[in-house]
Amino acid sequence: MMIQTIKTTPYGDQKPGTSGLRKRVTVYQQPHYVENYLQAIFDSLEGFDGQTLVIGGDGRFYNDVAIQTAIRMAAANGFGRVLVGQGGLLSTPAASHVIRHHKAYGGLVLSASHNPGGPDGDFGIKYNIGNGGPAPERITDAAYERTKVIDTYKTIDAPDVALDQIGTQHSGEMVVEVIDPVADYAALMETLFDFDAIRALFASGFRMTFDAMNAITGPYAHAILEDKLGAPKGTVKNGTPLPDFGQGHPDPNLVYCKDMFDLMMTPDGPDFGAASDGDGDRNLIIGKNRFVTPSDSLALLAANAHLAPGYKSGIAGIARSMPTSAAADRVADKLGIEMHETPTGWKFFGNLLDAGRVTICGEESAGTGSDHVREKDGLWAVLLWLNIVAVRKQGVDEIVREHWATFGRNYYTRHDYEEVDATIAGKLVDDLRAQLPSLPGKNFGEDLQVAYADDFKYLDPVDGSTSAKQGVRIGFTDGSRIVLRLSGTGTVGATLRLYLERYEAADGRHDLETQTALEPLIGLSEQLAGIKQRTGRKDPSVIT
Ligand code: G6P
Ligand code: ZN
What we know:
Blueprint: E1 3-7, E2 21-24, H1 25-28, H2 33-43, E3 52-57, H3 63-77, E4 81-89, H4 92-101, E5 106-110, E6 122-129, H5 137-149, E7 152-156, E8 167-171, E9 174-179, H6 183-192, H7 195-203, E10 208-211, H8 217-228, E11 236-237, H9 258-264, E12 272-276, E13 283-287, E14 290-292, H10 294-304, E15 317-321, H11 327-335, E16 338-342, H12 350-354, E17 360-363, E18 367-370, H13 378-392, H14 396-407, E19 409-420, H15 422-435, E20 443-444, E21 448-455, E22 458-459, E23 466-467, E24 472-476, E25 481-486, E26 494-504, H16 514-517, H17 519-529, H18 531-535, E27 542-543
Family: Belongs to the phosphohexose mutase family.
InterPro entries: A-D-PHexomutase_a/b/a-I, A-D-PHexomutase_a/b/a-I/II/III, A-D-PHexomutase_a/b/a-II, A-D-PHexomutase_a/b/a-III, A-D-PHexomutase_C_sf, A-D-PHexomutase_CS, Alpha-D-phosphohexomutase_SF, PGM
GO molecular function: magnesium ion binding; phosphoglucomutase activity
């Protein structure tokens, strides 16, 4: 095998964010851009000679090009085998499972998640380690340092692999196995959930609609929901992955799934609505007349997980990202199990999951998952919900209301200001940080007294590492919270995220409109941070 060492020059912008390196496709199309980043990753790893690398992506534009490049470079760098999903496809949770199941050294997940795809859209590369989860900062930081000085990369002169043909091929001397992207994952789901109970639910006439958003979950949802569980054909909508996601925005939220939301609010609409994002790790859950916020969904899934066979002996603990509401904390408290608050980004759950300290994790950004893989998992959340509905024989709305009547309700909303001038956004957060020491003890209005105000710093209880400056939190004595941070996943300018939360006790008022319930906090956050005033925006770009 002739290894070629190709000269290159560094790019200055290859710093991975919350979840890998996400850039416009046009940025990735620059000469050697993919190669530089992949070589920098490989240079930051050790001991993979002869080992297995998993490669797969969400099928977006440029996946095919990047995968062929990655296969040749993996061969040149000394990997012994590549496992790649047929057509280059693997959902992010399926990639995580394939890495674990086949004891691979690691994997490359090619996706920009919920960001739009196509020639004018986004592309991304993320490296996952052998536990199936996103690489920790130690590795992503090393890769970034390497991108700044990289001067050569290694590849081989070999033809493209036929990605549509399942079976064994070679790239140079390296073995390439093209695998069914769905099979391993579907088998795993069958071990976790009561498929018979869910089958009986569908057989009894329960109606569901699932929007795969023209993205990666389509083949998984067709195979599991329709073929295995007997949901009627047509339950899965937009089920064929398209390189540009049908020009849609594959983010399962109330903006991009508004049609489904409207349908779910009609009297003769389906009983259950769900959706997943570009790479299949996020989820949206809507019952008849009831949208379930991701924060509530985490709490509800944790409280009811024991109803599914995979979790019947209970859960060890729960983890949530810092901006996620504290609804799950009340469940952990009642169950007497560990509760962890981590920075935004699934990678921070990895150590806790590996150490067996938590079983279920979730984020306000529509991610929930468990120790079955090391990524969040959209379809997993949907199946756990279906399992719970099937066993409890109650609708989503009834289950949610009973939960609030037991634990109380955490009203919750997130206001995003997208594509804000990065300098203005940075200054705004800095100025709020500067106010923090003066806030504890202060009263605002009648009922809001600041209990604490800080910039979240995480101490990983497993490996002792720390991550500072993870977002400003202002907590109030009644359990309310204001959180402000800069998104780490945007590709243009800066995105400011304002998270607001208010707790209403078990015997309190649970039927207020969310934005109305949070109005005093919305007003106070503008008074403290001045987002509208300083950005000139009248309203948030997205409210979730
Ligand atoms: C991705 C990550 C999540 C994160 C979300 C929002 O989906 O996998 O872990 O919560 O992005 O991150 P951001 O930095 O944009 O708020
Ligand atoms: Zn995603």
